[in-house]
Amino acid sequence: MKGKEIAALVFLIAATLYFGGTFISYIKIEDASIGSAELLVIIALMTGWVQFMTWGARKEVQKDEMGRQIIKNSARISYYVVIAALLLLWIIDFFLVSRGENYTLFIALCIAYITYPIIQYVLVKRYAD
Predict the structure, then answer these.
(1) Per-residue pLDDT tens for 6-34?
(2) Which residue range forms the structural domain that includes residue 45?
(3) Which of 3, 22, 114, 126 has its CA 20 to 30 Å from the CA of residue 98?
């Protein structure tokens, strides 16, 4: 491991310990709730750990042909998983929760739906011309 990777690992461990202790204290305090900011921190920490476990000390694999294929395929699969999840959430919200009043979720679904084709168009124009 190089210096930057060790520093990133130390930061990830420190952040996990700090925020983990904070979340444990939320459990101990009565009537304390975990809000959206805390959920975003949990997701960011989970993402950091999964990225570290995936690539860790194998940064050269990430840059070779197989690594680029893995990144490309995982991006495509992630896009379709996000689309399916947003569509499912929107359907549940539309029919069961707010009866179509949640425009933010609908806009997020629309943005997610058009992102991949727009990026493909931009990349084709960049490399074709």
Answers:
(1) 888 899 899 999 988 888 887 777 777 77
(2) 1-62
(3) 114
